[in-house]
Each structure stands twice: as C-alpha cells, then as structure tokens.
Amino acid sequence: MSRFRFSAVLVLGALSQPFATPQNPPPLVGPLPGQVQPVAPGTRRAPSLPQLRLVPPIREVDKIEYLSNGFIEVASAIVLVGADARKDWRPLAAEVARRTFDARSSLEEVDVTIYDKASYGGFGGPLPIFTASVPRARLNDFLRFSIGERPYDRAWTAPPAAKTFKMTGAVEPTNAAVRGFLGERADLVKQQIDRAVAQFRGGEHGGMFFKGSSRVRAAALTFDDAPHPMYMPLVLDLLRRENVQATFFVIGRNAEAYPYFIHDMIEGGHEVGNHTYHHVRLPRLPDATVRSELQMTNDVVQRITGLPVRYFRPPGGEYSVKTLQIARQLGLTTTFWTDDPADFTNPGQTVLESRLVRRLRPGGLVLLHDNAPEGLAVLARFARVAETRGISLVTVGQLAEQDRAVR
C-alpha cells in the first residue's frame, strides 16, 4: 500500500481474532486480520470488469470476470460451495474452466478459485479451499487431473485447518509519527537522521533501503499485495514482453493459496519479497505478532521457492524501531520507495502514466500493485519510456547490487 496514513480502528478490530499457523488457512470464524483494509482519501471506484455468463449456468459460480493486457486475455472464476457439496473440488473446477473457455474463445487462461460459501469474505477473508490456474494449452492436462489420471502442477488444495494462537505482548507506543514512522519522540529524531543519511547516500543503510545511487542507470520496479488470480498472468506476460524484472512484495496468505504464481515469478527472473502474512499495519501490534507476520511469510515463500527472502515492505509504509529490529533479526531489509503514483486509487490512466514518468529517476524504487487495472494498462508504455531514458527496470536486489558496485 501507499504512503497514506489511516486510522487503524478497523484493522485492529479485525486483529482481535486469532492468527493461523503457517501452511494452514486461518480459521473460518469472524473477520480475519487484514480482511478490512483502509481506503485512501480520494480513491475512485474502479470501473467494473466485464463478466461472462455461462449458459446454462453452473449454480456454484458466483462470477467470472475477464481482463486483457493488450496481448492476452485471462478470466477469473469465483465459485462458492456449500457444506453439503462434494469434497473433491477438481471435477467442479474442471467443468468451470472448460465451460469458460467454451464461452470465450479469446481467453488464454482461466483461473478458478473455490470458497466455502458460508465463510466467504472476499479476497481478504478466509482462504479458498481450492485454486487452479488453467492455461488453454494445459486444459486437457487439467481435465485428466480432475478425474485422477495424472498430477497437475498449477492447482492447490487447502490443508486441514490448524490450531491457532492469540496475540500476546504489549503494543508499542506511537506518540509521534512522520511519513510512516511511528514511535516516541527520541526515536523519531534518530529516525529522521537515519533516513536523511540513507536517502543522501542511497543503498541499504541501517536495515533500510529508501533509494539507490543516482549514478546507477536503473530503477527497481516493485509490486505490492501479490499474487492475485487473473492479474498475475497478465502482469508477468507484460514484463516478459518488455524484458523487465521486478520484485513482488507478496502477502503470505496470497502466496499460500496461489503457489504456482510464486513459481512463475521465480521462473521469470523476478524476486519475491515479504509484505506480511495478513497485510496488517505493524507498529501498533505486539512484538510477537509482528514477528509472526514476517516469519510466516518468509516460511511460505521459502517453502515454495527454496530461496531465502531478503526484502520486506511494511503495509502502508508504516514502521517503527521494533519493526525494523525484528525485520533485521529475520534477515530482512525494510524497503520503501521513491515513486508512488497511487495506482490503487484509480486516478485515470493519463494521470497515472504522467506520475510514473515524471518521478522516474536513476536509483529509484517504483511502487505499483499487481491488481490495479490502470497500472496494468500503462505498464508497457512506462517500461518503454524507461528504456528510452536509459534506465533499466530491475529487482530490488539487482538495484542494491548495482548500487554497491558504484561505491
């Protein structure tokens, strides 16, 4: 999320619920941490995405949306099932995928997400019980998988729910704040000095990364909140076409439910960073909860990729002395940005593109979101502007390496 600061009332209310342990979905009771997200002032409602209607309908299908990146078109089907429905979701998912491809011949991929209807709370609510990514070229593989003939590597089934634990510990004081930092005044003064040094020098400093050196002819392209079905294949396809690498700061619960998209990121030469497990603002939370949010996400990503996580971005850009300390203890560099065009507020493609182009600079860190349609629409043009200016769009890790090389 962006640099805007919001009231934490809704988020803290949700955090009264217990957290789930890694590798298992949160319990299906009440609102979950991060289920209610603050809305930035001035946010405009995004235009509705086009929808497909199957004829005859499949009664479990809630909606099927589709979107194009100008080259390929992908659909996302949300399926809600009752407690008395079948336990093996593969045949239902296969029917939805096949029928969706039949309904629209231009589709390159269909993503199917199945939720328990009784607990469904939208994308930020309880995790789905089954997900699958079905490229058109893999449809027959998925159909064979649905009847148990062969394995399929682009599907996920939720494991049984695990035990949960409640938050413990004291909440850190937040007496003063500036641009996302929350803490007591003495800490605030020190942070202002540390930030000034880090921004002047560029590169990683004191466990923080605000910008790279202006002598580096590169800028880091980053996406927060990933992965989202339908959007992720479209973003990755554009980055491949433009020969651009990026860092995806993933929400742990999203990575948990869509592990095949995390594999796609790595196979595309991209980098996976940590954006907490439930997408919650950290400074007001107990230390144990902060550590859990970061550790759970590290564990999920490392289990999927086999690679350590190096970079962390705090939701909303909100951080404190303790969050920095905990991140460092877990081997994470807290990463910020120089260019936030606020794509999630839907300012319009023209405004968004002008903001991106105007703020592009050597050593910069660009903040986008993988599920912002307007950002998707201007991404290719932005990449070409960067190329004409001689600025390579790279991962955070690549920018840090180049920064060290020029010192």
Please tell me about this protein's structure.
The protein has 2 domains: 61-157, Diaminopimelate Epimerase, Chain A, domain 1 (Roll); 176-405, Alpha-Beta Barrel (TIM Barrel). By secondary structure, it is of the alpha/beta class. The longest helix is centred in the C-terminal third of the chain and has 19 residues, at 287-305. It is globular and about 65 Å long. α2 (90-103) runs antiparallel to α3, α8 (287-305) packs parallel to α9 and α10 runs parallel beside α11 (373-388). The strands form 5 sheets. The chain has a 5-stranded mixed sheet, sandwiched between helices. Strands 12, 13, 14, 17 and 18 form a 5-stranded parallel sheet that branches. A 4-stranded mixed sheet has the order 10-11-16-15. It is 34% helix and 19% strand. Residues 1-29 and 163-173 have low confidence and may be disordered. The chain has helices at 9-14, 90-103, 139-146, 185-201, 231-242, 252-257, 259-267, 287-305, 321-329, 349-359, 373-388, 396-405, and strands at residues 19-20, 61-68, 73-81, 109-116, 130-135, 155-157, 164-165, 176-178, 181-183, 204-205, 208-209, 218-226, 247-250, 271-274, 311-312, 333-335, 365-369, 392-394. The chain starts with 8 loop residues before the first helix and ends with a helix. GO terms for molecular function: hydrolase activity, acting on carbon-nitrogen (but not peptide) bonds; metal ion binding. Residues 217-394 form the NodB homology domain. It comes from Deinococcus yavapaiensis KR-236. Keywords: Hydrolase, Metal-binding, Signal.
